[in-house]
Fold this sequence. Notes:
Layout: H1 6-21, H2 26-44, H3 48-67, H4 72-107, H5 127-143, H6 152-160, H7 188-222, H8 229-260, H9 278-284, H10 287-298, H11 308-325, H12 330-353, H13 361-383, H14 387-397, H15 409-423, H16 426-438, H17 441-458
Helix pairs in contact: 1-2, 2-6, 3-4, 3-5, 3-6, 4-5, 7-8, 7-15, 7-16, 7-17, 8-13, 8-14, 10-11, 11-12, 12-13
Amino acid sequence: MLSHSLQYxxxxxxxxxxxxxxxxxxxxxxxxxxxxxxYFYAVFTPFPLLIFLAGVTVDHLLVKxxxxxxxxxxxxxxxxxxxxxxxxxxxxxxxxxxLRKTAVSLLAPWHIDVRAEPFHLLLPVGLSFYVFQAISYxxxxxxxxxxxxxxxxxxxxxxxxxxxxxxxxxxRASELMAHFREEPTLSPDDGARAxxxxxxxxxxxxxxxxxxxxxxxxxxFGSPHAYSSAECAVAAVAxxxxxxxxxxGYSDIAMGVAALFGFRFPENFARPYLAKNLFEFWNRWHMxxxxxLRDYLYIPLGGNRRSKPRVCFNLMMVMVLGGLWxxxxxRFAVWGGVHGVALCAVRCWWWFRGKTSEPGPVRVALGMLAxxxxxxxxxxxxxxxxxxxxxxxxxxxxxxxxxxxNVAPLVWGMIAVAVAAHALPLKLYELSAELFVRMPxxxxxVALVLLGLGIRHLSTMETRPYVYLxx
Length: 471
């Protein structure tokens, strides 16, 4: 049940009605949300619920153990056990097959036998997001930034809350679980803003991302040799735009739906393709993941407080591991490693130049162009099924074969819309939301119906899953 489907719309309406009918009663509203979240995940695949239930049980016992002891050594042992158990869950289900294939490749020349048969383990949907969120809670309890006085059912709902369980964003306990016992409120204006956010997410996903994906990205990446160099370059740019609108569309829908139940999720994107350098890009892209890597990996490694070589090592570690988080394939490590090298280069340049005055418009434009170009070129590795295919795509893109005959007018138009929408000041989005809020309810309803009809007319007929669903 994808969040841009009619089934999801009917599901949210039913849960919304039940939730607000009992919202003044803590136990009843918790039951509604937990039952809805379990049902929502079970529609994808029910078996991993048992895995998540076991994981939450272990973490909950360790959190309660931390709350009951003042011994620093015991508290550290409990948080380490939580981290190890969660990372073990991730490694077992997501990376075991990658490790098997790697061992086979490395040990075959030495005639050392390794298991030849695949493990065929089912990868639970949203496992990577689950594990990082689970670690954030236990570590925050250890650091004293989150309360351990939550019930098991609050802990379970925090991990399975249906708007975000599949593809994030990664929500901290202080942003969700801390508000479970507060009686929720939803004003008509807040409800309208939430619906507007959902509508924006649907437009991003179903119109911009899906049209770009089906119109040029999928065919060109599927057979790059059948297209010109210019068409491959356009496809690389289109995929960069598709990925943003696909994932930020999902995030908008998740935040809008959560707001309908009285919860506020953190922003996940801030116009990342307008970043002037790569550090700024990662502060604007998938912000819940970037902040997680900063707070739970980069800073514990020493962050910027160590020697210059160690700072570069920390950056490389974060980016390579952050790349591998996206998928059990070494090409994701390569993608992260390239970004790590580029971040180290930027950092070294700053060290060399020292503090400078605010850059002028020419330097800002050049910085934005260089950053976006690097992002586009590395996205090829991210999109290609393997490194061989990525190398073929790069070779074709650099072959100098002219021609843009296969780029349809609709694709050109959608690229223009995507670029323009990304460059618009955020103030315009805020003003649009306020205009929607001030509309009479019947006018809002007509606007949403017309939007739905427009989406059906412009979007692809097939339901395309979210790109980040695989992660």
